[in-house]
Design a protein that fits this description.
Blueprint (H helix, E strand, L loop, with lengths): L4 H28 L9 E7 L3 E2 L2 E2 L6 E9 L4 E9 L9 E14 L2 E13 L6 E10 L2 E8 L9 E13 L2 E11 L8 E12 L2 E10 L12 E9 L1
Antiparallel strand pairs: 1-4, 1-14, 2-3, 4-5, 5-6, 6-7, 7-8, 8-9, 9-10, 10-11, 11-12, 12-13, 13-14
Length: about 240
């Protein structure tokens, strides 16, 4: 599904504006950090042996470099930019770029709701372009997520995704995250499917190390993209 000409121009303007905003304001936001803790630029960069999202491979089992940065525009609202290299069979797409808009509503220190909207841009083939609407509820160590995708896997069809996750503190800075998701697709000859992901992660200063396992309930319909995968990763936050 390709965007209209006007939407393409608006999306490109948003991306360029966001990049310029990050470069120009990074130092000024850092200076404000001591005076206003809510206005702190955040980001991370991660290297993964394999990029898997919702149980499906997006790098054909090759390594992936992912990075993101968020700029707060207030105590609750922020905008961000996320990017990763990708690889698909019979496709010349190599980059997946997201512009993210998040509104966080904090009920108390243990419960918050995030309302998000993401613009997806792929380069250079744009058949996968689209947008996602996201609701994410965090209650203590439990995580509930709902997504509505306008263009699932470049099929020009909508899809919904729900997931439930739980985090466990194993030992000091070691965390065990488990997630069960369900993708509701409307593509002919494809069935909706479950995916699971289990991740062990540990932090040392600003470095994070992780090992993960993912799988789907119906891998045969994805020609190897939904098999059982093991993932190693290392990243840092700034």
């Amino acid at each position: 599904m390709d965007l209209s000409y006007k939407n393409k121009i608006a999306t490109r303007f948003l991306i360029v504006f966001l990049i310029l905003l990050i470069l120009v304001n990074k130092s000024s936001f850092a200076a404000e950090k001591s005076a206003r803790g809510d206005y702190q630029t955040e980001g991370s960069t991660t290297i993964l042996t394999h990029f898997v999202n919702k149980g499906l491979s997006h790098s054909q089992q090759d390594p992936s470099l992912q990075t993101n940065m968020f700029i707060p525009l207030g105590p609750q609202f922020r905008i961000g930019l996320w990017g990763s290299n990708v690889s698909y069979e019979n496709s010349d797409n190599h980059i997946w770029l997201k512009v993210l808009f998040d509104l966080r509503i904090e009920f108390n220190k243990d419960v918050d709701l995030i309302i998000g909207y993401n613009i997806n841009q792929f380069y250079k083939n744009r058949v996968r372009n689209g947008n996602d609407s996201v609701l994410s509820l965090n209650i203590f160590d439990f995580h509930i997520r709902y997504e509505n995708e306008s263009n699932w896997e470049g099929t020009d069809t909508r899809a919904r995704y729900v997931s439930f996750g739980k985090s466990f503190k194993i030992y000091n800075n070691v965390e065990w995250d488990n997630q069960l998701g369900y993708s509701m697709v409307s593509v002919e000859n494809l069935q909706s499917y479950f995916d699971i992901r289990s991740t062990l992660s540990s932090t040392f200063n600003k470095l994070e190390f992780l090992i993960a396992v993912t799988a789907t309930s119906n891998p045969g319909q994805f020609n190897g993209r939904g098999d059982v995968f093991g993932i190693l990763g290392m990243g840092f936050k700034y």
